[in-house]
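@channel sequence for tomorrow's demo:
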Amino acid sequence: MNPFRYGCVVEGEYFCPRPELERQLRAFAESGQNVVIQGERRMGKTSLIRHAVGGMRRMRMVYADLYCIRTAGDFCRRVMGGIARADDRMPFLRKAMSLVHRLRPALSFDPSTGAPQISVDARAAESPEAPGTVMEMLRKIAEGGQTCVVFDEFQDILDLEGAEGILAEMRSSIQFQAGTPYFFSGSVRNDMARIFDDSGSPFFKSAVPFTVGAIERGTFARFVAERFRKGGRQVDMDTAGALVDYADGVSGDVQEICEAIWDTTEAGARVTVEDVPKALKLVFSREGAAFGETVRQLTPLQTAVLRALAEEGTEGVFSGTFMQRVGTTSTGGLRTALGRLVARRIVYPYGGRYRFANPFFKVWLRTEL
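structure tokens (generated this afternoon):
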């Protein structure tokens, strides 16, 4: 069995321990402190939160992933899903459902796993008062014991119609829950800043900032080497460190390239950096169609900018050389193209430069397009 996991929450032996960050998050949860957790994509924020808080005794975790929510109804359904997963005891589920009776909840069980599921009436969930009803439910179910509420990809709440009003209502409820920690996790830095750093936002300075960066190189390299050994492959520490560097230390990307290397090598093999190209071919066979579709949806200028970023780096993007490379004399046009690539989350600004959200897309652009 492949010893690496990516594209999902990693747990157990697949999770690379981060003791200090875990300790800090548990301390925040125990003290009832609200926390805004930020980090770039695939840095392992969700796995870290679920490992740290989910492993606490006597702490119930209500986890709601708000990624790509588009309506208030989506918000309500995601939270109710988190409630159903937080505690499968019937008294708890019945209490939660009674608190949102206006949303006409219904309890069912997954036919495959037997896990409880709570659905709500679609029309009722879209009513203006529905998010407030759900927030009031969270407040009441947390009264009887320790509960940590986690809103993942929280910045996507800005995409809702009437987002400012919803945020205001949420803040109004949360500020009176002194004993209940709320963790707000997000991967789009500018949007999270709009919510927590803008003085006009209801959530201005309402939570302690907490940054999740790359795992320390030596720690991650040791983890990589141990996982390869567990999977019947050998790798020295220099090679393990090079694999970490290749994916910029991004947890999910490191796991992905290592997973592909394991799949393209034989049992007992000694892994080297020379195994990377073959592994990349496997990655491209899986993701190449999606990469191609992304390019097809871009304008010619956006495509030219993206290829130049992949081939020439991201410094001096407004230099004459770069503009000549992409075929434009318009600084405004180039700025608009970059803005669209950022808005589509293909690249993002980082330290005065632009980084690819998916480093394998960058390599694909250089080698396959």
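heads up for whoever presents: The longest strand covers residues 60-65.
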